[in-house]
Automatic annotation (TrEMBL):
It comes from the Bacteria. The keyword Oxidoreductase applies. Signal peptide: none annotated. Belongs to the short-chain dehydrogenases/reductases (SDR) family. InterPro entries: NAD(P)-bd_dom_sf (IPR036291), Sc_DH/Rdtase_CS (IPR020904), SDR_fam (IPR002347). It comes from Novosphingobium mangrovi (ex Huang et al. 2023). The lineage of its organism: Bacteria, Pseudomonadati, Pseudomonadota, Alphaproteobacteria, Sphingomonadales. This is SDR family oxidoreductase. It holds the Pfam family adh_short_C2. Keywords: Oxidoreductase. The keyword Signal does not apply.
């Protein structure tokens, strides 16, 4: 089963690397137009060139409301209505809760929770103004983490923001349910990316992988099918849900 996105425009926040870049390629491969949002414009421009005419790179700082609005303005100028948003931008600050500096804590909170709030809200505002209530084609997907349901050491606030995203998704889903907008949350397990590659290559990282029930990390494209489903017409009756895709890592 495939989930085509022909005629749909999707804005991906945090598209410059990792799963965000992978999501963008998958959306384009499914026939959608994709708006690549990130602070590292040089990276998204390179990705847009790779994808082709169906992609647009935009400067996007999800913690800045004006930047979020400008990104949607650019998307609409090129492609028209933005039908879907993937709120993927996120950062982490490692360290014991007693040691992490407050500036690092604020950056995590602002990017992961406030940033997802702002980009989702702007998408919903414009969908409603464009007539999503009648069309029923609004789709917002928040990218959480299995840390939302685990207890660990070294990522307390990161995990708390991801837990907050799951509930934020339910809140948004309830508020916009009569406006033709579906909101859902994806909670991935550990996936190899440039952010965590060094850690998983270390002795402790390899030991952590071996401790997983299946002794492996997720494949880089393991979320793509579910993401495309949630952005497509096939998910018209799915909203306010949280989906954990982790190969059993959190069991």
């Amino acid at each position: 089963m495939t989930f085509p996105l022909h005629g749909r425009t999707i804005l991906v926040a945090g598209a410059s690397s990792g799963i965000g870049a992978g999501f963008s390629r998958a959306i384009a491969a499914a026939g959608g137009r994709v708006v690549l949002g990130a602070r590292r414009l040089d990276r998204t421009q390179a990705l847009a060139e790779e994808i082709g005419e169906a992609a647009l790179a935009v400067q996007l700082d999800v913690t800045d409301e004006a930047s979020v609005a400008a990104a949607f303005d650019a998307a609409e100028a090129r492609f028209g209505t933005v039908h879907g948003v993937v709120a993927n931008a996120g950062i982490g600050t490692g360290g014991r809760a007693t040691d992490v500096p407050v500036d690092g804590l604020r950056a995590v909170l602002d990017t992961n929770l406030l940033g997802s709030y702002l980009v989702s809200r702007e998408g919903a505002r414009r969908l409603i103004a464009s007539g999503s209530r009648e069309r029923g084609d609004g789709r917002i997907v928040l990218i959480g983490s299995i840390t939302a349901q685990q207890n660990g050491t070294g990522d307390a606030l990161y995990a708390a923001t991801k837990a907050g995203l799951a509930h934020l998704g339910r809140q948004f889903a309830r508020e916009w349910i009569r406006q033709g907008i579906n909101v859902n949350t994806l909670q991935p397990g550990w996936i190899p990316t440039e952010i965590n590659a060094e850690w998983f290559a270390s002795a402790r990282g390899r030991a952590e992988i071996e401790s997983l029930y299946r002794g492996r990390l997720l494949d880089a494209d393991s979320l793509d099918a579910m993401l495309l489903y949630l952005l497509s017409d096939a998910s018209r009756q799915v909203t306010g849900s949280t989906f954990t895709i982790d190969d059993g890592q959190s069991l």
